[in-house]
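Hey, resending since the last one bounced:
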Amino acid sequence: MAFGGWFKKLGQKIVNGFKKIIPIAKKVGQVAQNVVAPALGTIGNMVGGAKGKVIDKWGNVVNEAGKQINKYANMVGPKVEDARYKKIDFNVPLLK
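The structure tokens again:
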């Protein structure tokens, strides 16, 4: 039973860690999409030329990264909150 209790506590710590990380990841994704990417695009257009194109591409990459972060945070969030995924039961009798 000691191992089952330890494993249950470990599972709970993992769930609690995800609960703390998901809102932060969502915020980072939103800032990347709504603030950083448009700013880089604007700067790239102002600079112009080859360097401006590179800066504009950075903005596109940041935008796509923000989309992916939000996508995965939205997929994982409901699963962490779902009660079905919290329940860990180790009531199996020991084999002697």
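The helical segments are 2-47, 49-81.

Sorry for the duplicate.
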